[in-house]
Amino acid sequence: MSDLSLQIAASGIEADQAELDTAANNLSNVSTPGYVEEVVNLKNITPSTTTGVGEGVAVQSVTEDGSALYDQLNLVSQGQLGSANEAASVQNLTQNAFPEPSSTGIQAQLSQLWTDLSTLATQPSSSGAQESVVQDANQVSQSLNGAWSQLSDVGQQLSNDLEGQGTTNGGYIGQANQLINQIATLNGDIVAGQNGGTDVNSLVDQRREAVNQLGTLLGVRTTTEPDGTMTVTSGGIQLVSSTNAVDLQATGTAASGDLGVETTTGNVLSTGGQIGALLTGVNTTIPDYQSQLSSIADSLAQSLNTLQSNGVSASGVPGATSSAGAPPYAGSYLPSIFVNNGSSTTYTPGSGSAQSITVNPTLMANPSLIATASGTSTAGTATIDPTTAQAMAAVGQASGGPDDLYQSLVALVGAQTSAANNNQTSAQALSDSTTAQLSSVEGVDTNQETVNMLSAQQAYQATAAVINSTTTALEALLAAV
Amino acid sequence: MTLANQLSGDLASQQATITTLDEQLSSGNSLLTPSDNPAAVADSIGYNRQIAQAASDQSNATIAQSWLGIGNQTANQVVDTLQSVNTTVLQALNSGSNNTQTYSEMAQQVQGLMSQLVGLANTQYGNTAIFGGTAGVNQPYSSAGAYSGNSQPFTISVGNGSPVAVSVPGDQMFGGGTSGVQSVFTTLQNIVTHLQQGPNATSYAGLQADSQDLSANMTQAQTAATTLGASTQAVTAASTAAQNTSTQLQTILSKTVSTDVPTVTAALQSDLTTYQAALYAVSQTVPETLAQFLK
Q1: Which residues of chain B neighbour A373 with C-beta distances below 8 Å?
Q2: Are both A294 and A431 inside the same structural domain?
Q3: Given A155, A226, B28, B203, which is the most exposed site by the fewest CB atoms within 10 A?
Q4: pLDDT digits (tens, 9 = 90+) for A396-455
Q5: What are the domain boundaries of chain B?
Q6: How far apart are CA A169 and CA B127, in angstroms?
């Protein structure tokens, strides 16, 4: 009998020790990412005799006090936060190409061009005024080229971030592949551990953390299979199944606006998370802004080129389509003001024209070849008629003209950036709230653990007292003999 | 842990607000990037465009006023000169004491006035002849008074609406061309010719006809001066309008983009107070755990 009570007490001591150890482990992992509070599952040992006296307690298992629902919610919110963070970062980078409000930006340069054209109209034959206008036009075209290139550079930088060029961590795709393979390996380790009867809680924690990181990068869904492995999909494509991992690779290019992510087996992913937002920025936002910059270039070049072609210069050189230039006139014509880079004659509008717009080198070399007079002037005769110069200066106030278009573009960039920033704030708030919920459900509650520790300590002391009492009783019995 | 996370999130967001307000105060601008306030940034671009346009209008108006000032002054001198010629012609017609000698002296006098008039007709603003119309010529009148300009006035754009004519073409000031009035130089040349003939019936009849021609020339020059006067009023009005527009827009722009110092300072003070209160709350709350009591 005394032997049994000592055994019972020993089992209690062991159980209390397990409780204390678990509380200690929980408290030490308060800040460990992905750690889920563990609980000791105890079970009383069924009496083996008919007397009905129990035979103590056994530690059945130590399990995680997790919640699959909150895990999923957290995974979704991590994907949204990753996407919102990346989108805000992309928007703020593209916004740098539009440094407004400013006294030196494209708007100020356009205004300078109109002012100097207006001044030229008051002195059409002044070589200084002609030179100023040509220099202003050159400045505007270079700024349009510059804004275009800056956007292209952002696209290229994002593409490098994705593919890992110039980085040591392999970029987003490299990180994703590492996580995918890590999850597949952990799946194998967890099954092996379960079969071998060892504790797999820490492996499950590691896998959850890896899945969360992958979710931030890609936006993923998970399913836990009956055998304890986790299947991971993104955009309907399976990335991890049991111990099989599918690697990702980049497809397309930023320059052609078709950058994407596909599996090495050729399935293109429609991704969320950081990568999804990055691809939207590279393939949609940047080309859209560039195309609108080109609309500005087109409006500017076409308005001024048409007026130039219909006008006559102060020295009497006619534009190609002016009345003064009609036969019998057989001399040379005024050059176009704006041309596509590399051409000396024509300007072709198009979505890429902001990249190529440039002032005609012929005009740069000889600014007097700018039309200032009406097309009905006489070819070959000097004139100070300012009609065409006035019409050019009025383009600045034209409804739907280059200035209007630029103003709208800046408003659009500002609104989209502001929306992305607001979206980031709300995604952060959602994520904070989800994390808080998750933490209250799965995280280590220090107060609760402290109470657990105290109660285990008291139980330990009580059980120790049982041993003491049993020993005393035994000694009393032996002394009586 | 939840409480600590919440508090640290609150502190971070308050710190971000304080940083933004600090930037606004130190830069003097409430708008630093388009996303700060997209509508206000777009507005400010629009205001800047209009301010630049108003400045350009004002600068053009100043040039137009110079053109018109010189034009008015010259027109008055032309009218004075023609009046001197008229006085001489009336003298030739009315005085009984005229003889070949006095007629010859009068002819020289008129010739002198004529070359003076050619000089006035070739008046320039900068390097541009103001009575040449829009023809690109420096000297629209030859010494004999032949006109090589055209009939279109030079215009300058000074704001909304059509450009304002800031000159009268030479033919509308001095006759000839398509104006329907005989060139004043022809009239003066005729007077000289008739005076050189000495007092006789032919020259007398000629001078009488010349006197009528001269009167038509004087009327035309006065009309031209009036036209310039009307343009001057239009330019002055446009200049004032541009000045007012510019002032109003500067005020609105300043309200849109500049930091409202009293408001931002008050907001900053209030945020700093809140921030300190939050810090105090954190210092009081975070250490309060059960473990603290169990020591």
Answers
A1: 134
A2: yes
A3: A226
A4: 989 999 999 999 999 999 999 999 999 999 999 899 888 888 888 888 888 888 888 899
A5: 49-253
A6: 69
Q: Are residues A433 and A378 in the same domain?
A: yes
Any B CB within 8 A of A363 CB: no
Name the band, by pLDDT with cuts 50, 70 and 90, for residue A1.
Answer: very low
Tell whether A351 and A301 lie within a shared domain.
yes
* pLDDT for B68 beyond 60: yes
What average pLDDT does range B129-139 have in this prediction?
90
Residue in chain B nearest A395 by alpha carbon: B53
- Same domain assignment for residues A99 and A32: no
Mean pLDDT of all residues in B188-214: 91
Q: Is pLDDT above 70 for B95?
A: no
Closest CA to B30 of B270, B14, A419, B22: B22
The whole-angstrom separation of Cα A338 and Cα A186 is 62
| Chain segment A88-104, per-residue pLDDT in tens | 999 999 999 998 888 88
Q: Is residue A109 part of a domain?
A: yes
Do A146 and A29 fall within a single domain?
A: no
- B204's CB contacts (< 8 A; 6+ apart) are B93
Superfamily of segment(s) B49-253: f41 fragment of flagellin, N-terminal domain (1.20.1330.10)
HEC readout, B133-160:
CCECCCCCECCCCCECCCCCCCEECCCC
For residue A30, the chain B residues in CB contact (below 8 A) are 1
Which helix H or strand E contains B6, and what residues bound it? helix B2-27
**Which tokens go with A7?**
């055994």
Query: Residue A60 sits in which domain range?
Result: 2-65+444-480
Of B34, B55, B127, nearest to A98 by CB-CB distance is B34
